[in-house]
Design a protein that fits this description.
By secondary structure, the protein is α/β, with parallel strands linked by helices. The protein has 2 domains: 244 residues, UDP-N-acetylmuramoyl-L-alanine:D-glutamate ligase; 123 residues, Alpha-Beta Complex (Protein-Tyrosine Phosphatase, Chain A), CATH 3.90.190. The protein is built from 15 helices and 14 strands. The strands form 2 sheets. The chain has an 8-stranded mixed beta sheet, with helices on both faces. It has a 6-stranded mixed beta sheet with strand order 9-10-14-11-12-13. Helix 12 links the parallel strand 11 and strand 12. Helix 3 crosses helix 9 and helix 11 runs parallel beside helix 12. It is globular. The two termini are 30 Å apart.
Length: 380
């Protein structure tokens, strides 16, 4: 389903992150998280890809990710199969009175739904992608057997802090003993992670690139794969199975080719830097939209100068889009060949040749279907 009326009525994000409302709510639901072997994944970028690789190597595994590309159901899966509309509605209705009593947010309620669903389906494992930060994220209601921190970089600074150590402390908050896997190399971030492991009595594994033959494009995926591989080994999976899991995993919207179109969910400075490195030297047109809370200036300074032409637009299927007219003003500073096209579908249709769609997962989700149709209709 595209959305759910009760979930849509809830606040999307609290101004101040806290686990306080969720603790008694989960107690009322029987603490389903305590019946699951949880693998929790945080990081500035790469969380979803890492989660997909992990779930690909685990049997009868629940996977909880956010946000979704097309359907709300995508966020809650077991063995790659999204929860059905009827089951999602049923679980939301069961959780609703508890959510209302404790004033849970959208994400907190959906997290409770996912954990209850996974526990009642007797999943062997549950892979949980952190929504924001780590320490006070709703997924941290669970105690993980393996914690994964893909990387630490600048994003959501208004909530997580303005320095790498501050952001690292928030992300390291998922560590509660067990095994901790990270691909982080920044000394100031790694020092924070090491300290937290020492405090919690956790075993730290710093994942090294292994030169995997991945289905997923982008050199940065090697770090994500290294994290997933080490986490799978920590869970008792053999090297052969762990390697196969990371190498055969798919995760749409990440350097994904559909005919002449390339879709990537890069939405912050570090992700846009990676995308720019991948595209450097390639001639392309760019369709871009962003969320209002992102650093538009830094993102556009990295990607816009490389494009032959930039179509500036805004997504229409999710909250908080940055106005296309404002984004256009910024884009013009970095590329004179810009066109304002407020309708994202018109922007995609206007593009010629190799075209990159980036800036927001919401934009990617909105345009993937149209790209597939254009390719089928015109052989684009």
């Amino acid at each position: 389903m595209k959305s759910h009326p009760f979930l849509d009525s809830l606040v999307r994000m609290r101004q101040e992150l806290t686990l306080e409302p969720l603790v008694p709510a989960m107690r009322e639901l029987g603490n389903p998280e305590s019946r699951l072997k949880v693998i929790q994944v945080t990081g500035t970028n790469g969380k979803g890809s890492t989660c997909a690789m992990l779930a690909n190597g685990l049997e009868h595994c629940g996977l909880y990710t956010s946000p979704h590309l097309h359907e709300l159901n995508e966020r809650i899966q077991i063995d790659g199969k999204p929860i059905s509309d009827s089951e999602l509605d049923s679980y939301v209705r069961r959780v609703q009175p508890v959510a209302e009593r404790h004033k849970l947010s959208f994400f907190e309620t959906l997290t409770a739904v996912a954990l209850l669903y996974f526990a009642e389906k007797k999943c062997n494992y549950a892979v949980l992608e952190v929504g924001l930060g780590g320490r006070l994220d709703a997924t941290s209601i669970a105690k993980p057997v393996v914690s994964v921190i893909t990387n630490v970089d600048y994003d959501h600074m208004h909530i997580l802090g303005n320095t790498i150590p501050e952001i690292a402390r928030e992300k390291a908050g998922i560590i509660k003993g067990g095994i901790v896997v990270t691909a982080e190399r920044k000394p100031e971030a790694l020092a924070v992670i090491r300290q937290k492991c020492a405090e919690e009595g956790a075993t730290l594994v710093v994942a090294e690139r292994k030169g995997f033959n991945l289905m997923l494009e982008g050199s940065y995926q090697q770090d994500n794969a290294a994290c997933a591989y080490e986490a799978l080994l920590a869970l008792g999976k053999g090297e052969t199975k762990a390697r196969a899991a990371v190498e055969t995993a798919a995760w749409p919207g990440r350097l994904e080719r559909i005919g002449r179109f390339l879709f990537d969910c890069a939405h912050n400075e570090p992700a846009m830097r990676e995308l720019a490195g991948y595209l450097r030297g390639k001639g392309f047109e760019l369709v871009i939209a962003m969320k209002e809370t992102k650093d538009h200036e830094k993102a556009l300074s990295l990607i816009a100068p490389l494009a032959r032409k930039v179509y500036v637009t805004q997504y229409t299927t999710a909250p908080f889009p940055f106005p296309a007219r404002e984004l256009y003003k910024i884009a013009k500073r970095y590329n004179p060949h810009c066109e304002l096209v407020e309708d994202p579908k018109k922007a995609l249709k206007k593009s010629v040749g190799f075209t990159v769609v980036a800036g927001s997962l919401f934009l990617v989700g909105e345009l993937r279907g149209l790209a597939t149709q254009l390719v089928a209709d015109k052989g684009a």
